[in-house]
Amino acid sequence: MKNKSSDIACDNVHSAIQDTLYVVNGKWKLVILSILVNNGTKRFGELSRASGISPRILSKELHELEINQLVSRKVCDTKPITVEYSSTEYAETLKEVIDAMIRWGQNHRRKIIGQ
Amino acid sequence: MKNKSSDIACDNVHSAIQDTLYVVNGKWKLVILSILVNNGTKRFGELSRASGISPRILSKELHELEINQLVSRKVCDTKPITVEYSSTEYAETLKEVIDAMIRWGQNHRRKIIGQ
DNA sequence: GTAACTACTTACCTTTTAGTAATTGGTTAC
DNA sequence: GTAACCAATTACTAAAAGGTAAGTAGTTAC
């Protein structure tokens, strides 16, 4: 029988990764967050155009991010009405993950092209 | 008209994240990699039991990781035959991403439970 | 009153993902 | 020869993800 404490540690790591994936799942959540974290507040339409995400998907993803307190929604009293989305303070804690993924993706592309 | 250089920068960031997601997509690839990176070489069956991934999925995921040079496969001349999977040197470059996700997941769990 | 702008929402469809269960193939022990 | 072990693979299915296109709703400008 194997070391039990390392099994527990392994399980914690396993769960931790799955927990993170559960919150930032899908093709778009990290892209949306990187835009909001790096470029600040965006309106719904701006975000749709900037990311290339269709309204249906964008709406769904923003809602899920809002539920997880990573994005906040503010209705502005403009004519016509506009809605501003911003990354929350809690989203800042994801910056480490986002930046690591950006760096890896950039490096990977260089590697692939170089081959 | 908006600043063109920042549009390009934004697009690079966008693509970089999607490139990374393309390589480590799905529920399991980062879990598999974290096991191999942290615990070293594992056999197919060990990996299946350690991760709780069924043979069909594990086989598919390992194959995709192998194609992307993140995992190496070694057939051992044992009786019965066994197959060892290891993370490659290139997989080490993903450690930053994996570790950031582990830390975030652990922190997030603490936050959720605390609420 | 009709066109335009914003921010969605709905209906519909296709593709992808992930899972179970059973099977294959090679080898060894009894 | 038959049971057992390992590493897959195949067939099948259910669920989720993601996309298009069109519609809704509130307001304003002409």
Question: What can you tell me about this protein's structure?
Answer:
Chains A, B: One of its GO terms (molecular function) is DNA binding. Chains A, B: Keywords: DNA-binding, Transcription, Transcription regulation. Chains A, B: It comes from Pedobacter chinensis. 2 copies of one chain form a homodimer. By secondary structure, chain A is of the alpha+beta class. The first copy, chain A, has one domain: Winged helix-like DNA-binding domain superfamily/Winged helix DNA-binding domain (Arc Repressor Mutant, subunit A, Orthogonal Bundle), CATH 1.10.10.10. Chain A has 6 helices and 3 strands, in the order H-H-E-H-H-E-E-H-H. In chain A, strands 1-3-2 form a 3-stranded antiparallel beta sheet. In chain A, strand 2 (about 70-75) and strand 3 form a beta hairpin. The longest helix of chain A has 20 residues, at about 5-25. Chains A and B meet through helix 1, helix 2 and helix 6 of A and helix 1, helix 2 and helix 6 of B. Chain B binds a DNA duplex (30 and 30 nucleotides) through helix 3 and helix 4.
CATH names the topology of chain A as Arc Repressor Mutant, subunit A
Rg measurement of chain A, Å: 18 Å
Low-confidence stretches of chain A: none
- Tell me the distance between the termini of chain A: 44 Å
The number of strands of chain A is: 3
- What is the level-2 CATH architecture name of chain A? Orthogonal Bundle
Q: Into which percentage range does the β-strand content of chain A fall? A: 5-15%
Biggest sheet, spatial arrangement of strands of chain A: 1-3-2
Instruction: Give the chain pair forming the largest contact, with residue counts.
Output: A-B, 39 and 39 residues
What is the helix/strand order of chain A? HHEHHEEHH
CATH superfamily of chain A: Winged helix-like DNA-binding domain superfamily/Winged helix DNA-binding domain
Please indicate the count of domains of chain A: 1
